[in-house]
Design brief:
6-stranded antiparallel beta sheet, alpha+beta
């Protein structure tokens, strides 16, 4: 993209001494009164729950968006986009929302400056900046006592935020512009004001002349007038936009009572302890919903693989209830970098952050820990390595980027290098509320075939080894020795023998609401006898219908069944159910998947594996990418390698698939799918066909 049309970033650099000073100033700022009848807005995250961590932010300041940008940016919880995208890419903003209805998108605009060259851009290239410039009065330009313009960022001139001007004022015009020209578009959840400085003399120099009298302002008075002008911008914005819009700033922890939060850019340039204290304050005391964002970056070096720096910032953000962003730096906020840690769902925090080196919560260097429902964050802000001896085993992530750190190692003691952090997961030792084979060896994969957790044997003493367990909401069925037992909320509803008491072989089955009444039916297939017969039962064991997929004289055995509603389903209040029965072929025939409607009318069939493989196909169904459209999983069955593939409803494959276990194995692989980590996307559950049992 032509550099001339990129947005300047204008993002401030705060030094440690100033941050410490501003923290002191915070105690003298008076909080505004809350209007009677105004309810506090709820906390939020893109996952739809307020306590899902990590929470992720992106500052993406291109003036125009692409489809690829929109797809990548939809992954975040909160997104800062340049205001120009309102005119140049409104369809892409809508596409982001379609991809993530829970995302919060705020419009970027500077609070105290405008480009010198704004008029050199056409109204097609920079429509919003030109529109903003239309209303700027010459008297609003901040000057020095010599009459020269005051400037902070190269190529810009500063605007006078104070009330020390005659006539109309910038601090009144800007909020009106935001309300009338930006937020009125309906595209935005709020506004992000850049450069919300808590003073002016550091950024513009000691020589400012806010009242244009040709005399240098007193520094203390100038800074106080500047702060009051900023507060006025926030107050007017809130009055005009109401309580539901987010008002964010870049800088100025002292403004916590007046906005929803701020960005901590270039973290931890101002000192880890000092900046984290400000982050904690915003996360706890800004207007709700509170948005404290830590932005770590490469310091404009482009080193996206500086994983240690990324982890240190992320771990620090996890210590308190804010958001995290990692990008190139304050000169080019336009990256959509994604990291192994971003895909983890730690769940809700279950403890406060604690400095386990010192045994307290005082913000100072040391080894910090915070526990979550599904794991923990360890952060070492000290200058030497620190070791955490934990109260049990935890598991490192299994990643594809920094494999030495995200190795999947399970241990009870972890050493964290200085200025680094690690995310640890609570080990999974048993999966219950998913469909599984009892006693099988289980591995969990992402849709890209990446191994997400260490493998384990999934066994429950109350089930027979080799029993197949199926789940549909509060309903569960267990098949063992030719019998199916059905429970609801763990209370037994009944037992029956789908293929007669003489049949003691394996039964593949699925629970699915074929009748569109909210109660599942059982779709069953005899795997160890011929001819194969698909039968549909009510939960009490009464037969509804049956079908011989290969004829009544066939001798094939094996295969499997699955069932799912590929349209989201429902009853009278919801769209018509489109429940489908999925059949994986038995051994001895070409390896295909057949899709039937609930009346056994064949909709389509497609080949799952190439070559001369005739070992049978195991099938399952899951929503692997969280788009409410289910995918079909296949696993090569007996005499086949543990090869898993993914197909859409029309039989289009998502790549060549992957091997869940050793490619040299010929034991095959059973498949299932469930949302193991609560991120709204199903993971792939690979299960060995051989099982163990405890007698």
């Amino acid at each position: 993209m032509n550099q001339r049309v990129k947005s300047h970033r204008y993002l401030n650099i705060l030094l440690p001494v100033l941050i410490g000073l501003f923290s002191v100033l915070a105690v003298v700022v008076v909080a505004p009164k809350i209007k009677s009848g105004q309810a506090e807005a709820p906390e939020f995250s893109a996952q739809g729950e307020k306590n899902i961590f990590p929470r992720l932010a992106s500052i993406f300041l291109e003036w125009e968006l692409t489809d690829a940008n929109a797809a990548a940016l939809a992954k975040y919880d909160i997104l800062v986009l340049d205001m120009e995208t309102q005119k140049r890419s409104p369809d892409k903003i809508r596409k982001i929302r379609a991809g993530n209805p829970k995302i919060k998108i705020v419009a970027y605009i500077t609070s105290e400056e405008i480009r010198d060259d704004v008029r050199s851009f056409s109204r097609e290239t920079a429509p919003m900046r030109n529109l903003l410039a239309d209303g700027i009065q010459d008297g609003w330009r901040l000057k020095k006592s010599t009459g020269e313009k005051a400037s902070f960022w190269p190529g810009t001139y500063m605007l006078n935020v104070t009330d020390e001007v005659s006539g109309g004022k910038w601090n009144e015009y800007l909020p009106r512009f935001v309300d009338e020209q930006i937020l009125s578009s309906g595209l935005w959840d709020g506004v992000f004001y850049d450069n919300t400085f808590p003073n002016i003399t550091f950024f513009a120099g000691e020589d400012t002349d806010a009242d244009n009298d040709g005399v240098k302002d007193d520094a203390g008075a100038a800074n106080e007038a500047w702060r009051q002008g900023m507060i006025k911008i926030f107050e007017i914005t809130r009055r005009l936009t109401g309580p539901d819009k987010l008002i964010l700033g870049n800088g100025g922890t002292i403004y916590a009572p007046y906005f929803n939060g701020r960005l901590f850019e270039n973290f931890p340039r101002g000192g880890w302890a000092t900046e984290l204290a400000g982050y904690k304050k915003i996360a706890a005391s800004a207007q709700v919903p509170r948005v404290a964002i830590i932005n770590s970056n490469t310091e404009n070096t482009g080193k996206r693989d500086d994983y240690q720096k990324m982890r240190f910032g992320l771990g620090s953000a996890l210590l308190f209830d804010g958001f995290y962003s990692f990008d190139d730096g304050d000169q080019r906020h336009n990256q959509t970098w994604w990291y192994d840690e971003y895909g983890v769902n730690l769940g809700a925090p279950i403890s406060e952050a604690k400095n386990i080196s010192a045994g307290d919560s005082e913000i100072r260097p040391g080894l910090w820990r915070r526990d979550f429902e599904r794991g923990m964050a360890l952060v070492n802000s000290a200058d030497e390595p620190k070791t955490a001896n934990l109260d049990g085993e935890y598991e490192r992530l299994r990643g594809i980027q920094d494999a030495d750190v995200n190795s999947g190692e399970r241990n009870s003691s972890f050493t964290v290098p200085p200025k680094d952090a690690i995310i640890l997961l609570r080990p999974i030792s048993f999966l219950d509320n998913v469909s599984f084979i009892n006693g099988s060896y289980v591995k969990i994969f992402g849709s890209d075939g990446s191994s997400l957790r260490r493998g384990f044997f999934n066994y429950k003493n109350s089930y027979r080894g080799g029993a197949y367990v199926g789940v549909f909401g509060k309903y569960k069925a267990v098949s063992a020795g030719g019998e199916i037992a059905v429970t609801k909320n763990d209370d037994e509803l009944g037992r029956f023998w789908p293929y007669g008491r003489e049949y003691r072989g394996r039964i593949s089955f699925a629970l699915e609401d074929l009748g569109n009444d909210g109660i599942p039916e059982i779709v069953a297939l005899n795997q160890d006898s011929a001819p194969q017969k698909i039968q549909v039962f009510r939960l009490n064991g009464s037969l509804i219908k049956y079908y011989y997929p290969y004829g009544q004289k066939s001798r094939y055995r094996g295969g499997s069944v699955a069932a799912a509603d590929f349209e989201g389903g429902g009853n009278a209040e919801r769209p018509q159910s489109r429940a489908r029965i999925i059949l994986g072929s038995p051994a001895g025939v070409k390896p295909e998947v057949r899709i039937f409607d609930s009346g056994f009318n064949l909709i389509r069939a497609f080949r799952a594996y190439e070559g001369g493989f005739r070992g049978g196909v195991n099938v399952a169904v899951g929503d692997l990418n969280g788009d409410a459209k289910k995918e079909i999983l296949t696993g090569a069955a007996s005499a086949g390698g543990p090869h898993i593939r993914i197909f859409d409803f029309f039989g289009k494959p998502a790549g060549e698939g992957f091997f869940a276990f050793s490619p040299d194995s010929r034991a095959g692989v059973a498949v299932s799918a469930a949302d193991i980590d609560g991120d709204g996307k199903d993971e792939i559950i690979a299960m060995s066909n051989s099982v163990f049992t405890i007698k």
